[in-house]
């Protein structure tokens, strides 16, 4: 078997598996069997489904969106389905692994490490044999181009999904014929390991205009005829499929399969039927009770639910005048019963789920060997459905709860509040209904409104309360800055002291200091009752049981992170 080998740079947690549901048998009545393996720190999914596999064959992986943007680094290209289809094509310096560690990609790199702390200097050693599919070596020029298009000072017109880290780089230089890459930072940047997860082909991009034109136009609109990964795109049929063949210039182990197909099925119910008919062999759908039950009922299919870095939360728009009072917000979050929400939603198909107590770290998570997770929510009295305690918070603050509703300390009625949720998302609708009923006991009326443009709704503050999810990185420093910093705050809450803690966390390489600072931020957000974590959203993976080395990866990279290892298991 081949795999992206060890040399992992520890910065995350081992994965806590919620449930493994293995499909056995071949008859129509042969369905999945459930095994609850929750509890304690597990070895994780890094070695799950480890098998020796045969050469040859085809695997079809269902994704839920047609690929409309072929540049995964572009603002409109950072979509999970796009990433699954482009992971096999783009070279990766760093990869987020299933056990919440950030690993250097051993296929591409010999080394990736800090060689100087002031100014912080990182050195990447590229394997001599690493080339693009046209035979052009992968070099420092690819790192440099990938940096430039994500640095707003060098390319103000570029539209990257994120500038985090790249705007802190002073220079990218090459040595040893471009095989040694030296990245020098302007100041210490703690989450440097999150950078360069995908590299773009500089030698191709620079033939198609300046930085902005090549990045925004050419790379987004052009189906890649090149590859720096194990597979090369052979054919793209819009709204149907992306078919890949082996990259003859692949410099790593494998790939084992002759062909890898990404089939586009926008209706997840179609994916279940296709899986039952063996038309697809891998799917990573959004989990629901019906979907999990249907997949469990298919013979010879293994279905896995694993806790990951995506979590659901309830946010309050503090810019709304009625919600500018922390006492009212605290009463709202005290009344919300998170366990009831869990029981009504994901608890129906994922065993032993508990309410989440942190916004930056997941349970059992570690950062470079330092225990990171602290429950800064339950310990603050939030999310327990304590109606009487919530009422006391209000009355102590001068509110009056009457038959006509809730009146603020100045005698003004608290207006009807709008709670927004994603259109077509049953879990979030169920959550909203529960919150509506819970707050009704405080005299607060919620009007539920769906949105078909969640990002716009969040970013414009077009809500009073809203439920949605945040996908953390395995190193959460940059995510915390973008979510809780004053510049990126979608809740309207701004706190100079939080800004200072976030800045300090991003500029220290001491993991204990990072953990302490991010937990101070988290505790302050609880004190001010700005957001309420609800639960970790499980990642669902189903695959044909005769396939080896396919495993759930509940990080941004997703299941296709190791497609070069996939194949049909050898017979015993």
Kindly state the mean pLDDT as a whole number?
90
Query: What's the name of the CATH homologous superfamily of the largest domain?
Result: Periplasmic binding protein-like II
What global shape is seen? globular
Provide the helix percentage.
10-25%
The total number of structural domains is 2
Please describe the biggest sheet, giving its number of strands, its sense, and whether it closes into a barrel: 9 strands, mixed
Number of helices: 14
By CATH, the architecture of the largest domain is named 3-Layer(aba) Sandwich
Taking the alpha carbons of the first and last residues, their distance comes to: 15 Å
Give the helix/strand class. Answer: alpha+beta
**Roughly what fraction of the amino acids lie in strands?**
15-25%
Q: Are there runs of 5+ residues with pLDDT below 50, and where? A: 1-44
Say what oligomer this is: single chain
Q: What Rg, in angstroms, do the CA atoms define?
A: 24 Å
Number of strands: 27
CATH hierarchy class name of the largest domain: Alpha Beta
Spatial order of strands in the largest sheet: 3-2-15-25-14-4-13-12-11
